[in-house]
Amino acid sequence: LRLTAGGRAQCPRAFGLCTPFDAGVFTLVRIDNDRVGSELAFARNGSELPEGLHGIWWMDQWGSNLPIPGDPDFPYDFPTACDELLITWGDVTWDPKSRCTSPNWQVCGPVGHWTFNDIGDGKSNVWMGPSGRGFISFCFTSDAFDAIDAFVAFLFPPKVGPLLEVLGWERVGGGFDGYYWVPTAVVKWTMQKTAWGWARVTTVGNFGGGGDQQKAMDSMPIEIAALLRAPLKTHRYPVFQIVDGMGARTDNYEAYLRWANTDRGENCTCGPTQGCGCGCPINRGNGTSLVGIRSPPPGARR
User: Fold this and answer.
1) SS3 of residue 168 by DSSP
2) Cα–Cα distance for residue pair 155/143, rounded to 1 Å
3) 10-residue block means of pLDDT along the chain (302 residues)?
4) pTM of this prediction?
5) Where are the beta strands (DSSP E) in the chain?
6) What is the distance between the terminal CA atoms of the chain, rounded to a whole angstrom?
7) Chain-centre distance of CA 185, in angstroms?
8) pLDDT tens sequence across 15-31
9) β-strands 187-193, 170-173: how paired?
10) Would you call 214 helix, strand, or coil by DSSP?
11) pLDDT per residue over 117-148, tens digit each?
12) 187-193 and 147-155 as β-strands: parallel, antiparallel, unpaired?
């Protein structure tokens, strides 16, 4: 798996000649749900990215847009749903040799490509910022560009690294110091192209390790820890395109907007840090959502 055409971080920390992406300052910014086409970075027609990653995509983790016309038996099952909304690939680059994207950072980018519910006071229970770091590299596995393996990596404290390696986790390397790949034997993320969008498939494995297991989980992002606590199973949810590569709204746009604009969760008993797998969605955005934006740290060279 290559993260750039050269297989390294675009700005390895050790070089000291530029500021690594993850050393930036990340903040949550409020945007209007009905203006995402002008607020978010997304791949447009003519982009080097495959067409299946063009536009803006709604992660319908709560299954609100079911049943799907033409596919009423889609096996939706996602008990670890998160309070997040949209994803794009407008802040990544493409490596045609490996057929992988560069890291799509969960804490977001210079323009913004991942949106989250406001659970109250401009906060998200899923966003990893401002201090957490994690990314996904999306790799196409078929010549038809209709199947994707999503490789997920997270930054861990140095003291956790040896424990992860004992448990079989591999370092990302290539300048991504402190980052480890989530083993596909533990959790495997894939995407399958359909007539209506993408089916996101998560296969949860057995997370072994005996007494070391809980120590490792305590240092993991909440959405990963929630998956690891789930029993061995395959979960699915639909991902719908709401804005296409030309910037036009699709037939899924109104369903997305209804979901995103409806405040909910007044009777939800989940704590503000529980995150994924709560069992009840929370939204206090009043027609808005949150997106992470990166700014250079003070005194950065670029």
Assistant:
1) coil
2) 32
3) 44 60 93 98 97 98 97 95 96 93 93 96 92 93 97 90 86 88 88 98 70 61 64 89 98 98 91 80 96 86 53
4) 0.89
5) 25-32, 56-59, 84-88, 94-95, 100-101, 104-105, 114-116, 134-140, 147-155, 170-173, 176-181, 187-193, 198-204, 233-243, 288-295
6) 27
7) 19
8) 455 678 888 999 999 99
9) unpaired
10) helix
11) 999 999 999 999 888 899 999 999 999 999 99
12) antiparallel
Count of residues making up the chain: 302
259: left (phi over 0), alpha (psi -120 to 50) or beta: alpha
Burial (CB < 10 A; 0-12, 13-18, 19+), residue 297, is: exposed
Q: How far does CA 142 lie from the centroid of its chain?
A: 22
3: helix, strand or coil: coil
Among all chains, which residue has been given the structure tokens 């390895």? 12
β-pair partners for 116: 84, 290
- Which residues sit opposite 32 in a β-bridge? 288
Amino acid at site 297: P
Q: In 3D, which of 174, 178, 124, 182 has the Cα closest to residue 150?
A: 182
pLDDT score at 97: 92
**Secondary structure E strands in 94-197:** 94-95, 100-101, 104-105, 114-116, 134-140, 147-155, 170-173, 176-181, 187-193
Contacts of 250 (CB under 8 A, 6+ apart): 55, 240, 241, 242, 243, 244
φ, ψ dihedrals at 232, nearest 5°: -55, 120
DSSP codes joined into one string, 120-133: STT--SS--TTT--
User: Who's near 99: CB < 8 A, 6+ residues apart?
Assistant: 139, 140, 141, 145
**Tens digits of residue pLDDT in 279-296:** 899 999 999 999 999 998
CA distance 174 to 279: 38
Rounded distance, CA 222 to CA 83, Å?
A: 12
